Amino acid sequence: MNTQAWVKHAIREINADFQRSAETHMVRVPLPMLSQICLYFKDESTHPSGSLKHRLARSLFLYGLCNGWIGPESTIVEASSGSTAVSEAYFARLLGLPFVAVMPQSTSREKIKLIEFYGGKCHFVSDASQIRAASQELAQQNRGHFMDQFTYAERATDWRGNNNIAESLFRQLELEPHCHPAWVVVGAGTGGTSATLGRYIRYYGRDTQLCVVDPDHSVFFDFYRTGQPPHSLGNGSRIEGIGRPSSSRRSCPKSSTPCCKSRIPGASPACCSSNNGWGDASGRPLAPTLSGPCR
């Protein structure tokens, strides 16, 4: 099979995987003390690879294939110790490609096992701030492709529609008592999900506000607040798999977030072990600030 035929087959395989997958659930969360408030939780853990990063990984692979960056002999390399690496390993296995995740030595064994479960390999670095450079070098050495989620996440996803998370979320709320939510809360990972939600909200003229929650030791909040040139921190974020130790203007576009970025104090680390837990723990403090009918 020549390269052109392989790429066509690879795109078909990814689209077929999407066709087999059901939409993730939107769960209404009861708040007995705030009966006038409707809180919903979009459970992205039901994706085949277990998180919302399944959407991102699918988009990144399609973006790389359609740009001619990924071929039948490509080794896929990603800078990630979190769910993105797990999801990319899933799609690499689907296409029969080797996958390497570059991550800090401190990464949990549980995450490493998930990446290895899908056939991926892990490459460890001692300094978290060097992950990107190590990923680029590894891709060059193996004549592979560095996916670079932090650069391409916000552009690989079609934020106007095409079943992205924003379109899915608002479609699932259409028959709810208040189909135009006052707030959407999302954790900061690559910035791609918040960019998709923010642009979608603006494009369709919705009144919904967007809260992007950044953990400690991550640069998103400071970059958004000050607008200063990209900078790096010496250590990774407090919550494994979300936040990031360095920023660029590409990864933190102010235009992506119509309302605010914030750090929500008082969230228990026990419930912040994943993107879903962090978003849930951070969304609940916003509920008492709302008033009026179910919102």
What's the helix-strand series? HEEHEHEHEHEHHEHEHEH
Low-confidence stretches: 249-274
In terms of DSSP E residues, the strand content is: 5-15%
Domain tally? 2
Could you say which structural class the secondary elements and strand pairing correspond to? alpha/beta
CATH architecture of the largest domain: 3-Layer(aba) Sandwich
- Number of helical segments with 4 or more residues: 10
Please outline the major beta sheet.
4 strands, parallel
Terminal-residue CA separation: 54 Å
Helical fraction: 25-40%
Counted beta strands: 9
Q: Look at the structure and give the CATH class of the largest domain.
A: Alpha Beta
Tell the overall outline.
globular
Oligomer: single chain
Kindly report the average pLDDT value.
80
CATH topology of the largest domain: the name is: Rossmann fold
User: Which sequence of strands runs across the widest sheet?
Assistant: 5-4-3-6
Global Rg: 19 Å
Question: What is this structure's SSE topology?
Answer:
Layout: H1 3-20, E1 25-29, E2 39-43, H2 53-66, E3 76-79, H3 83-95, E4 99-104, H4 109-117, E5 121-125, H5 131-141, E6 145-146, H6 149-156, H7 165-172, E7 183-187, H8 192-203, E8 209-213, H9 220-226, E9 260-262, H10 275-283
Parallel strand pairs: 3-4, 3-6, 4-5, 7-8, 8-9
Antiparallel strand pairs: 1-2
Explained architecture:
- This protein is of the alpha/beta class and 295 residues long.
- The protein folds into 2 domains: 160 residues, Rossmann fold, CATH 3.40.50; 101 residues, Rossmann fold, CATH 3.40.50.1100.
- Helices cover 37% and strands 14% of the residues.
- The protein has 10 helices and 9 strands.
- The strands form 3 sheets. Strands 5-4-3-6 form a 4-stranded parallel beta sheet, with helices on both faces. Strands 7-8-9 form a 3-stranded parallel beta sheet. It has a two-stranded antiparallel ribbon with strand order 1-2.
- Strand 3, helix 3 and strand 4 form a beta-alpha-beta unit.
- Helix 1 runs antiparallel to helix 2, helix 2 crosses helix 3 and helix 3 runs parallel beside helix 4.
- About 9% of the residues have low confidence.
